[in-house]
Design brief:
The protein is an alpha/beta fold. 25% of the residues lie in helices and 32% in strands. The chain has two helices and five strands, in the order βαββββα. It has a five-stranded mixed beta sheet, covered by helices on one side. β3 and β4 form a beta hairpin. α1 (42-58) packs parallel to α2 (131-153). The protein starts with 25 loop residues before the first strand and ends in a 5-residue tail after the last helix.
Length: 158
């Protein structure tokens, strides 16, 4: 009677992460500089912190500054305001803040999994409010949505 052992592959799914931790151990997340025409300086730090925190909380990957199994690089390419919900007197009752982030995801272990994609998210606010009064909260909310979109498209392997 011959007995054969088959190797097992361990992978974990934490909040949508589909990673084989026998293969993937490290990730490098670069800075995401703002390359938009309109610049709100705190946005860069807000977005980068949320991205790193989300990866740390939802994977077992170690972040590195050097060579790594996975890489996330990119830039904030858009920070735009546009009028929405125009009323009968031709004034906008809402204003939309849209933030766009270009992400390059590089899988240094498996070919064909690289991504170069732009993600966008927005929030509307009442036009009677000053942007300076709602900007921090809107950037937090939009950054969270962008991080979810980026994670699902890259580490979530959807």
């Amino acid at each position: 009677m011959a007995t054969t052992w088959q190797g097992c592959r361990i992978s974990y799914k934490l909040n949508g992460a589909a990673l084989d931790y026998n293969v993937y151990k490290t990730i490098h997340v670069s800075e995401f500089p703002i390359r938009a025409a309109l610049v709100y300086p705190p946005l860069q730090q807000t977005f980068e912190n949320q991205l790193l925190d989300y990866i740390t909380q939802n994977t077992r990957l170690q972040t590195t500054d050097g060579a790594s199994d996975l890489e996330l690089t990119g830039e904030i390419t858009g920070y735009n305001l546009s009028p929405q919900a125009v009323t009968e007197d031709a004034y906008a009752s809402k204003t939309r803040l849209t933030i766009s982030v270009r992400v390059k995801y590089t899988d240094n272990k498996t070919e064909g999994k690289n991504i170069d994609q732009t993600f966008s998210a927005y929030r509307d606010f009442d036009s009677s409010e000053m942007l300076t009064d709602v900007q921090d909260e809107l950037c937090e909310q939009i950054s969270k949505e962008l991080v979810d979109l980026i994670f699902n498209a890259t580490l979530g392997d959807w």
